[in-house]
Design brief:
Order of helices and strands: HHHHEHEEHHHEHHHEHEEHEHEH
Helix content: 40-55%
Bound molecules: coproporphyrinogen III
Shape: globular
Number of strands: 9
Largest sheet: 7 strands, parallel
CATH class: Alpha Beta
């Protein structure tokens, strides 16, 4: 893998000629070629079919010419291969057959050794191997990923998607010991899943804490950050991106004491403001407003130029959205963004 790939330079703190650009959820329903491939296959079955997962990972790279691929999988895949009963309901998200709510539930689930995941991960290894064979021929890095302990727990404790993740946040205070046991186990789950992808060829990793924005700063520091930090520290030797939505109030904490090389910023805070908060030792990733993808190109173009300009305040900048690509996005808007950013 070429270390001068723009994504890897930016993660190391250098500024390549133009900023690298990729999109969270670039693989998926915004692409007609994805929808066609997925007909008749359930989401998690697709993730565990190596040829299919590799092909879906590569589709947006070929179409948009982005500077990174993100491995097609899901944050619940390591739990599925650990033997936990979970499915992804279309239009809804991950749903668990047995929510993890009591101290006994936590003891039961955390008795599964996280190493189990590494033993059952051959479909992941094979998919990464097929993907990187094509990608590295064109000098494009593969980003591996995992769900952060809080975001995973938010689904597991609730049993499915929820608005404010009340049950997971309540457990922190009602039974702190069970909370730390669960989050500690999930940090091992994340670490093992990341390590499998890195060992098979991924050149960088991203930890998704999509729902961290529902936490108070104090709860984030006490109950969440130490577990997320442990997940990243357990995977040495690759650059790491730490992403959350609504994390402006504790953005500096998202650096995890230097364990993250880049911090993701959502669309709410301009990148120059974010740079002043996180300081000169970290790269920023973001933060095109996903809603702007629906705007006429002229308005979107102006917005992207503003994002790139504000990103100059950071030590380095990886252009991305503030959150994932909405499924109803016109994919041509994404291709135009890549062309524009590469021309700057
Ligand atoms: O391009 C990529 O980013 C591909 C890989 C990817 C997927 N999920 C594929 C997927 C990644 C990085 C994820 C992570 C993920 N999964 C997160 C964190 C990122 C974020 O968006 O905040 C979260 C919260 C999940 C949980 C999850 N999985 C949700 C909420 C959903 C959507 C459910 C729906 O139908 O609306 C999924 C399913 C999912 N994961 C899809 C894809 C492409 C859609 C499945 C389909 O095609 O039906």
């Amino acid at each position: 893998m070429a270390h001068d790939a723009p994504l890897l330079s930016a993660l190391a703190g250098d500024r390549p000629a133009s900023p690298p650009v990729w999109f969270m959820r670039q693989a998926g329903r915004s692409l007609p070629e994805y929808r066609e491939l997925r007909v008749g296959t359930r989401m998690l079955d697709a993730c565990l079919t190596p040829d299919l997962a590799a092909e879906i990972t590569l589709q947006p790279v070929r179409r948009h010419n982005v500077d990174a691929a993100v491995f097609f999988s899901d944050i619940v895949v390591p739990l599925k291969i650990a033997g936990i009963e979970v499915e992804i309901e279309p239009g809804r998200g991950p749903v668990f057959a047995d929510p993890v709510r009591t101290a006994d539930d936590v003891r039961r689930i955390t008795s599964v050794p996280a190493e189990e995941i590494a033993h059952n991960a051959d479909p992941i290894r094979e998919a990464v191997r097929i993907t990187t064979e094509e990608l590295y021929g064109r000098g494009t890095p593969l980003i591996g990923f995992a769900g952060a302990p809080f975001t995973l727990a938010a689904y597991m404790v609730e049993g499915g998607p929820s608005k404010d993740h009340m049950r997971a946040r309540a457990m922190m205070h009602a039974d702190p010991q069970s909370w730390h046991r669960l989050a500690g186990w999930l940090s091992e789950v994340a670490a093992v899943f990341l390590q499998v992808q890195v060992d098979a060829g991924a050149s960088a990793v991203q930890l998704f804490d999509s729902w961290a924005g529902s936490l108070s700063t104090s709860d984030y520091r006490t109950f969440v950050a130490p577990h997320s930090k442990r997940a990243l520290d357990a995977v040495p030797g690759v650059p790491k991106i730490h992403f959350g939505v609504g994390t402006g109030p504790f953005l500096a904490d998202m650096r995890l004491g230097g364990s993250a090389d880049a911090v993701g910023v959502d669309w709410r805070m301009p990148l120059d403001e974010a740079a002043a908060i996180v300081g000169p030792d970290v790269t920023l990733q973001g933060n095109i407003d996903p809603a702007m993808l629906q705007a006429p190109w002229e308005a979107l173009e102006e917005h992207v130029r503003e994002v790139v300009l504000a990103g100059r305040a950071a030590r380095a900048h990886i252009v991305n959205l503030g959150h994932g690509v909405p499924p109803d996005t016109d994919p041509d808007q994404l291709t135009r963004i890549v062309e524009l950013v590469h021309s700057l």
